[in-house]
């Protein structure tokens, strides 16, 4: 695949993915509330989910997504329910931890499935790829190598963007030292997470 096509794809994805959406809102809320150490299963699932949608678009499998529409709807609502539950936990989280007592972390598997639910529950990601890719490449002639190049480009862009958001959220968390500040942060994070759940639920 031509380097120019990959650069155009990367630039468009950078603009689209860099704008905070439900996935980024959920990620930032999680980091501010509980730190960044346990978010990587969530991130990995988001990147895999994006790769799945990209693959559907590249190989013309939009029909498959429509055929299994009910499955994607179920996945979407599982993600909404989990994000709403996380928002409730953040809203009611204690602001003072006892000495030597660390906050209980969600299991990596739960976070991974939450990330998959958030991403696969958003078919507009595939619609973005379906709208963009035909303008820069001939989808009918894409080889496995071309698909791998697109996927690697997508992964590089998303990793850079998402880790930048994680770093920014982690720095913001460091500024929140007092119980009052932590309570405000927890409530803001809960509101953000709830808004992310609502945004996903409202999408058709």
From TrEMBL:
Q: How does it sit in the membrane?
A: Multi-pass membrane protein
Organism equals: Ollibium composti
Presence of the UniProt keyword Mitochondrion in the record: no
Task: Give its localization.
Answer: Cell membrane
Q: Which residues cross the membrane?
A: 41-63, 70-88, 108-123, 154-172
Q: What is its main location?
A: membrane
Q: Which keywords does this Swiss-Prot/TrEMBL entry list?
A: Cell membrane, Membrane, Transmembrane, Transmembrane helix
InterPro entries with a match to the protein in the record: LeuE-type
Pfam family name, one: LysE
In Swiss-Prot or TrEMBL terms, this protein is called LysE family translocator
């Amino acid at each position: 695949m031509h380097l120019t096509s990959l650069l155009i794809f990367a630039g468009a994805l950078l603009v689209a993915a860099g704008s905070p959406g439900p996935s980024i809102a959920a990620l930032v809320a999680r980091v501010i509330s509980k730190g960044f150490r346990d978010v990587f299963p969530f991130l990995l699932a988001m990147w895999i989910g994006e790769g799945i949608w990209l693959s559907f678009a590249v190989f013309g499998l939009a029909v498959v997504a429509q055929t299994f529409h009910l499955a994607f709807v179920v996945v979407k609502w599982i993600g909404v329910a989990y994000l709403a539950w996380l928002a409730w936990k953040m809203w009611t989280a204690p602001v003072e931890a006892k000495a030597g007592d660390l906050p209980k972390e969600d299991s990596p598997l739960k976070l991974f499935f939450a990330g998959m639910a958030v991403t696969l529950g958003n078919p507009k990601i595939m619609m973005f790829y379906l709208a963009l890719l035909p303008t820069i490449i001939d989808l009918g002639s894409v080889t496995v190598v071309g698909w791998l190049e697109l996927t690697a480009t997508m992964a590089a862009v998303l990793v850079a963007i998402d880790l930048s958001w994680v770093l920014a959220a982690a720095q913001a968390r460091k500024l929140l030292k007092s119980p009052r500040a932590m309570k405000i942060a927890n409530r803001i994070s809960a509101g953000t997470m709830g808004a992310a759940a609502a945004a996903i639920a409202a999408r058709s």
